[in-house]
Structure prediction request, 275 residues.
Amino acid sequence: MEHRLDYYIDSINAIQKERARAADPNGGTCLLTGRKAAIETSHTLARATHDVTQLEWAWGMKKGTFYVHTRYSLLFLRADWHTLFDKNMWMLIPNKNDLKVLENATARLEKETEQYTMALEEATSGLQGESNPSAKPSFEDVKRPEFGNLFNKNEYEYHFVPMPNMEEAICRYGGPNFDKHKEFKFPYHTLGTLKSHIKPHFVVYNAGKKLMFQGTKAFQNQIFPQNQVYPDRSTLITVQFLYLKWIAIVVPEDFVDHQNEAEQGSDEDHNNHES
Prediction:
C-alpha cells in the first residue's frame, strides 16, 4: 500500500478552515451542541489515512489529487466531542438515499474494474499463449463513477450513532443567545438528524473504519430498537461493506504508476471535481 505522507503531515491552514466554515450550514458551531465556544476542526477522513491510492481509484479521482484537508471532510466540534470522535466513541451515518447512491456507485465501479481485469488478462495471455501489447487496456478505459460529483447539495443529513459504552450527554443549545438547551442521553434516539456540508463518502469511510475495530455485533437493541427502521444494524453492515470494498478493490498497476505532474500537491477542487 502506498503511503503519501506529504498529503497529511501538514495541519489545516486558515484558508481551509474558513472554506469549511463558509460551507457549513451550522456556521462553524459545534455539530452536536450548537455552541460556538471551544470549537475545533475535525477530519472525518483522518490525516494519517494510508489508503490514499485506493480511495483515489475507488472514488473516481485522478491519481495524485487526494487532499485530506478538503472542506468536505472537515466538521466543527466542541473540543470534548472532537476527542470522543477521534477515539472512535461515536460516528455519523448518512441518510438512506445517500447511502444507496454510494452502494450503486460502488457496484458500478466493481463491474467496470472486473471488465478491465478480464480484458487485461486476455491481452496478456493471448489465445496462443502470446501477449498482445497493442490490445492491452488502460485504466483510463475504466468508467469510474466520480464520487465528488455524486453529491452536489449544500447540506446533508446524518444520524448520530454512539458506541455501546458511550456515557456523555449531549446538551444541544438554541435560541438567539444560546440560552436554551435540550439534553439527550444514551442511546440518543430523540436527537434527530444532524445537518452538515461534509460529503457522504467521507463519512462512510470514517464510520466503516471505526466499525472494523468495534464490530457490528456490538450494536444491540439498546442502540437500535426493534421498531427502528433506519439506521439499524443492517445499515452498519452496509457501511462496513462499502468501506471494505473501497480499500480492497484491485487497483490497476498503470494507475498506481501514473503521475499527473500538473496535479501533484493538489487543492480540494481537484479532490471534489469542482470547476
Remarks:
- The radius of gyration is 20 Å.
- The mean pLDDT is 85.
- The longest helix spans residues 96-125.
